[in-house]
Amino acid sequence: IGVGALLISGLPFRASASTEDAIAAFTGGAEVGSGDVKLIAPEIAENGNTVPIEVSSDTAKEIMVLATGNPTPSVATFKFGKLAASRAASTRIRLAGTQDVLAIAKLEDGSFVQASRTVKVTIGGCGG
Amino acid sequence: MATGVKPRVKVPKSAAAGDTVTIKTLISHKMESGQRKDDDGNVIPRSIINRFTCDFNGENVIEVLLEPAISTNPYLEFEAMAPEAGEFKFTWYDDDGSVYETAKNIAIS
Amino acid sequence: GNWAKVAAQQLLTQDKLLEFDTFGNVSLIHITDIHAQLVPHYFREPSVNIGVGRNTGAVPHVTGAEFRKLYGIDDGSPSAYALTYDDFASLAQGYGRVGGLDRVSTVIKSIRADRPDALLLDGGDTWHGSYTCYQTQGQDMVNVMNALKPDAMTFHWEFTLGSDRVTEIVGGLPFAALGQNIFDAEWDEPTELFPPYKFFERGGVKIAVIGQAFPYMPIANPGWMFPEYAFGIRDERMQEMVDEVRAAGAELVVCLSHNGFDVDKKMAGKVNGIDVILSGHTHDALPEPVLIGETILVASGSTGKFVSRVDLDVRSGRMMGFRHKLIPVFSDVIEPDAELTTLIEEQRAPHATSLSEVIGRTADDQLLYRRGNFNGTWDDLICDALISERDADIALSPGVRWGPSILPGQDITREDIWNVTSMTYGQAYRNEMTGEFLHVVLEDVADNLFNPDPYYQQGGDMVRVGGLGYRINITKPQGERITEMTLLKTGEAIDPSRTYQVAGWASVNEGTEGPQIWDVVEAHIAMQGTISLDPNNSVKVVGP
Ligand SMILES: [Mn+2]
Ligand SMILES: [Mn+2]
């Protein structure tokens, strides 16, 4: 078990109002359905300060990523150019605790879709 | 101003025309979130890379807007097309106005 | 007494233990989680091993009488002694010690006498867990394991030697160091040092062995000791590797895994095309493989107490059938391999004086053991030592699954203490923690053990507590499992806002300060002389 100066909470955070604001800013208030967007993230973060994530879609023009439990939910927005071979990208993000990570894609047809994954951030320690 | 900022990229040396190439980039940067406090309790001001672009022969591959939730030493991976031989140009934009650039050539095999 | 010992051992012979009707065309030999136990010792299996979600009541979450009933094992029989916990102290008097890598060598050589090209696969947690292993940074285990001539291994605690030492040892290994899920952390790429798989041609069969290291290394152990590496389950890549080896002509696909049993079960259900998973990490010993779809899962215990032999009939690129035996290594019955005995003694000789020093002894009714979801008497003793030696209100001790047992009325040597405490981050810290933080810690660890989804489990047991009582409802979600936390010395409820003095060890945080835990425990045992512990009833469990 690891104990010391820990800032994380063991409890899942609830999505904040600022998540709603960030989504509204991206979608302009349009409906967000499910469909052509995929988010890959680990079940348990090896390190909450650097959590690998990958977003992908066949038809997205842009994909925005939000960490719904962070004090500031915005993470990144990927805008695919003419020479993007795929609508996919990976990065590493900070998560302040166990929470849902959200990917919202703006598709070529102008619609918005989302995908989410729960990532557990744990104090850790102990093992067989 | 951020110091010791060093970009690194991985691009294949050659590819077939129109093939997909995987590109990986890393830039050493502390990505100060603006939410941490120093020992005296004062907020450490935000200082991050806030935007990244990759272009090939002047045409855009990807643009990424980065927020403070991006980890220290921002890592980005994506796929590009190289329709002809040429140069990938990578640009990172810092909060403090600094711009970091690097480029890689790719040959067509 | 002696009479019981003779009577018990008359039931057992080496020939009988090793008896096996050779089958098919391929043999696999699996050993795992040896935790540096070079010489014979006692090892009591858990009394409490609760399964959750779909694994409620399923093996390996069956113990004691239920386990014997499930597998048709007679009370008091050799199998009852080897595989269950009841009457452990008295059965141990009769059946004696288990393990010892010179005995393991005899078992391996006898299998190789039947099938010279049998594959020997080591599931990891090998270079950790003893005085000599710590002092030699794993070299004693490397020397002895090399003499057993394994064909491949995978990893967990090995990485707590630090990445420089791991790189040094692995670079010189005369066999494959496998891990499809061991990645370079900086660029998220596979490493050259740890290839995903290796092909073997045995009995005319093309066999691919794919390695799967412990997925949660940087969480369960100090990630700062091996920052260059990332792990994870990576089951999608596992599928890619299976497809790749099948495309390259593999007729038999074996996964040498350190996932832990429930994670392996889930992975077996998601990844198609693995014939055999040799499962490690959770230290379960199962007399029969578990079948998930067309994949068989084999669990081979820990500390060299068991060797699994799996014979397979592989024809036209398919596994047509198997025969399996979990061979218990009764060390008074199986003749030691003299060559290995000498080699093991060579490793131990420079440390002999220190190893054999008697620090105290157990009372005539006091068994020291570790396994169990919530507490073991070894951990009760360690927590007592932390509270008295570090002057704390509450003690925390990690829920590791390794560490041999000590019988009633037995001397406790320095070696015995190191066998249950040795690690490269053994500093015993003393911190102030609020009641609220203690609650968060217990909830966090409980979820790592009792999350209904195995992929969220890390395969350790619950953190052991001293000076603190609590109630746990396993079926609740994280944040709601732990209630009624009580400070035992006053009987008062833990106050979320109050600060308590907490001593513990094995922190994963860099820079943890304090005396080494083995010194703390040694001082405590030396002061006590004879160890006699109060029964521990401080955890109330509400099960599924
Ligand atoms: Mn182990
Ligand atoms: Mn392990």
TrEMBL record, chain B:
Residues 10-102 form the Sulphur oxidation protein SoxZ domain. NCBIfam families: SoxZ_true (TIGR04490). The gene is soxZ. It holds the Pfam family SoxZ. It comes from Sedimentitalea todarodis. Signal peptide: none annotated. It comes from the Bacteria. This is Thiosulfate oxidation carrier complex protein SoxZ.
